[in-house]
Amino acid sequence: MTRTEEFEQLRPLLFSIAYRILGSVSEAEDAVQETWLRYEACPTRPASAKSFLSAMVSRIAIDVLRSARMRREEYAGQWFPEPLLADPYEDPERSAELADTVSMAALLLLERLSPLERAVFVLREVFGFRFGEVAAAIGRSEPACRQLAVRARRHMDAGRARFEADRREREELAGRFFDAFREGDVDGLRELLAADVQMAGDSGGKAPLWGDGVFGAENVARMLAAFVAPFIQIGGVVEPHEMNGQPGAIFRDRDGKIVNTLTLDILDGQIQTIRAVINPDKLRHLGPVADAWAVVRETNRVRRLKD
């Protein structure tokens, strides 16, 4: 097998490691490309390409994350990960587990960890690398990595129950949610939402925040129902789609351009959190992006005429 073939075979794994460390599709793709350039320039072939390349992409991602931390602290409004339509790395025996580790909820929990804790958790807990391999990847001793893993696991376990749910139940409830949403059925939406449901949006200051800081089943249900009819009337489309391994949707304008994405956190038969990503910079990897300001202005005009 050539070096190129070897790398391409491992590319899905490398991207999946980098995305979980960074929470950014574009930055993960850049980290994978940088890994290839370094591997191509390496004078010798490693004994294990998987261990070598996983360590390399992890170190690159850690460095990127450290520089990104300050930008995220100064970010306008809430910061959410870039939405991922499909994880390229597959393991049929662990598909549900891997999907949960790439969910918006899990990635936001990972944001609480230090870059080293995050890398150790991803390599060890998600992908099952041995501590010796993890130590080589992050440049720390095995005992230090074990300590980092304990701390990371403690942080993750503290919040994990919030996004665990039976997959079949989750998909069925999401189907009912989007049916009620498209019909503008306030009562149907309300019964699917937890009493303390929260709807939040990430615009980065570059798009309207129609989903920012709405709390409670009544308020969220009414807001969603009020928005959808005029949005569909102007040619908008709500396209249910798995997002970060969880139920979600892509909103498109009449030309098929992306307005925003939506993801649902479901637990105990109810929707706990709805997250909208509206920042155009975080949507470009999904396709052409709409002018969300123009879409919202037109939607609001239709709403006012209806009222």
Please provide a written account of the structure:
- The chain is of the alpha+beta class.
- It folds into two domains: 3-163, PhyR, sigma-like (SL) domain (Butyryl-CoA Dehydrogenase, subunit A, domain 3); 167-306, Nuclear Transport Factor 2, Chain: A (Roll), CATH 3.10.450.
- The protein is built from twelve helices and six strands.
- The longest helix is centred in the N-terminal third of the chain and has 25 residues, at 49-73.
- The relative contact order is 0.11.
- The mean pLDDT is 92.
Radius of gyration: 21 Å
Kindly give the count of domains. 2
CATH architecture of the largest domain: Up-down Bundle
Q: What is the highest CATH level, the class of the largest domain?
A: Mainly Alpha
Instruction: State the separation between the terminal residues, measured CA to CA.
Output: 66 Å
Strand order in the largest sheet: 2-1-6-5-4-3
Question: What amount of the residues lies in strands?
Answer: 5-15%
Overall SS class: alpha+beta
Query: What is the mean pLDDT?
Result: 92
Family: Belongs to the sigma-70 factor family. ECF subfamily.
GO molecular function: DNA binding; sigma factor activity
Domain RNA polymerase sigma factor 70 region 4 type: 105-156
Subunit structure: Interacts transiently with the RNA polymerase catalytic core formed by RpoA, RpoB, RpoC and RpoZ (2 alpha, 1 beta, 1 beta' and 1 omega subunit) to form the RNA polymerase holoenzyme that can initiate transcription.
Can you give me a brief rundown of this structure?
This protein is of the alpha+beta class. The chain has helices spanning 3-22, 25-41, 49-73, 95-101, 104-110, 115-126, 131-138, 142-160, 167-183, 186-190, 217-233, 292-306, and strands at residues 193-202, 214-215, 237-240, 248-252, 258-267, 270-277. Belongs to the sigma-70 factor family. ECF subfamily.
